Structures are given as structure tokens and as C-alpha cells.
């Protein structure tokens, strides 16, 4: 069984197509028996992936740190197992990275980007080759992908540590 950590938006006010894309991805992961680790939130794409996983009896766990559990603007998903005793954001990211076989970046904002770069840095510094998949079906991450190529071209980064995918079914080759 592969464990897939998903980093994504916790905002509801995003294009509904992103929710449909997330649903399609979760259905594929559950059908292939993957365990899903996510941020544990009830809102945005986080909430949608949890709703779908729960509806399909999928194996899903939320990782929330103690301070976030107290934030009324970031409610946790009440129908999934939430990891207890996570002391802060750094420990949360570490758990989510360490326990993953694959890291999947869905659409998100600053928090998602920070988690992406944390994962890239862990792969680079620790010599790991955990797949980091950036789901870019709607082109949200085009500028980020272009920036990565510029960083490589100008010698600030040795290689691209991520794989951009544009269709949900592309994840299958990484989870089988």
C-alpha cells in the first residue's frame, strides 16, 4: 500500500473545477488502496478530499498541530482520524513528508507552496527520491514550473525535483 501525502487549499472560494479534479484523484487513490495523509481541514480541497475518502471508506488521516486545532477559521474534518499531539507546523510537515511514499501538490496558496518547497528541500538535502507530483491540469502552476526551469538554467538549482501532471490518471504509474 502506498501512502500519498496531499498538500492543497483550505479555501472554499475557488473554481469548482478544482473540486471536481480533486474528487477524481481521490477516487483513483482509494481504488488503488492508497493511504491518504492530508492537513486535516474541513474546508476547501482538503475538506472535499476527506469527504470523498470517507464516502468511499478510504484510508485517510489528518495531521493537524495543536495551535491549528484551536483556530476557528481552520476547522478540522470531524469524520476522519486526526493525529493527536502534533506540537507545531514543523513537526506537522515532517510527519507528512516522512510518512509519504508520494507527495501530491493540488491547487493551493502560500501554505501549499511552502509545503511543496519543504518537500523539495527534504528530497534534495536527504538524497531521497520521493516523487513530488504537481497537479497542473488548469495551468495554475505554469509560472512556478517556468521559474523552476529558470532556476536550473541560472545554476540556482541542479535539477527539477518535481513531476508536473495534468490528468488525474497520470498518478496511477506512481501508485502501482
Structural commentary:
The chain is built from 7 helices and 7 strands; from the N terminus they run βαβαβαβαβαβαβα. A 7-stranded parallel sheet has the order 4-3-2-1-5-6-7, sandwiched between helices. Helix content is 43%, strand content 19%. The longest helix has 17 residues, at 110-126. With 176 residues, it is of the alpha/beta class. It is globular, with a radius of gyration of 15 Å. Helix 3 (66-69) links the parallel strand 3 and strand 4. The protein has a single domain (3-175), classed as 3-Layer(aba) Sandwich (Rossmann fold). Helix 1 packs parallel to helix 2 (44-55).
- Architecture per CATH nomenclature, i.e. the level-2 architecture: 3-Layer(aba) Sandwich
| Strand tally | 7
Structural class assignment: alpha/beta
Strand content: 15-25%
Quick structural gist:
The chain is an alpha/beta fold and 176 residues long. The protein has helices at 16-31, 44-55, 66-69, 89-98, 110-126, 142-153, 172-175, and strands at residues 3-7, 35-38, 59-65, 81-86, 102-105, 132-135, 163-165. The chain has a single domain (3-175), classed as Rossmann fold (3-Layer(aba) Sandwich), CATH 3.40.50.450.
Feature tags:
single chain, 176 residues, alpha/beta, Rossmann fold, seven-stranded parallel β-sheet, 7 helices, 43% helix, 19% strand
Secondary structure layout:
Elements: E1 3-7, H1 16-31, E2 35-38, H2 44-55, E3 59-65, H3 66-69, E4 81-86, H4 89-98, E5 102-105, H5 110-126, E6 132-135, H6 142-153, E7 163-165, H7 172-175
Parallel strand pairs: 1-2, 1-5, 2-3, 3-4, 5-6, 6-7
Amino acid at each position: 500500500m502506498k501512502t500519498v501525502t496531499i498538500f492543497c487549499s483550505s479555501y472554499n472560494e475557488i473554481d469548482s473545477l478544482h473540486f471536481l479534479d480533486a474528487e477524481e484523484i481521490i477516487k483513483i487513490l482509494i481504488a488503488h488502496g492508497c493511504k491518504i495523509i492530508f492537513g486535516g481541514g474541513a474546508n476547501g480541497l482538503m475538506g472535499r478530499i476527506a469527504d470523498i475518502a470517507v464516502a468511499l471508506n478510504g484510508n485517510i488521516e489528518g495531521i493537524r498541530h495543536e495551535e491549528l486545532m484551536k483556530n476557528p477559521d481552520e476547522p478540522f474534518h470531524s469524520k476522519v482520524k486526526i493525529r493527536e499531539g502534533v506540537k507545531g507546523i514543523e513537526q506537522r510537515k515532517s510527519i507528512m513528508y516522512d510518512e509519504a511514499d508520494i507527495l501530491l501538490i493540488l491547487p493551493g496558496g502560500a501554505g501549499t507552496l511552502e509545503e511543496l518547497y519543504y518537500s523539495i528541500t527534504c528530497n534534495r538535502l536527504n538524497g531521497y527520491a520521493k516523487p513530488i507530483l504537481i497537479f497542473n491540469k488548469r495551468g495554475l502552476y505554469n509560472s512556478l514550473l517556468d521559474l523552476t526551469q529558470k532556476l536550473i538554467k541560472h545554476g540556482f538549482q541542479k535539477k527539477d525535483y518535481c513531476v508536473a501532471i495534468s490528468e488525474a490518471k497520470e498518478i496511477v504509474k506512481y501508485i502501482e
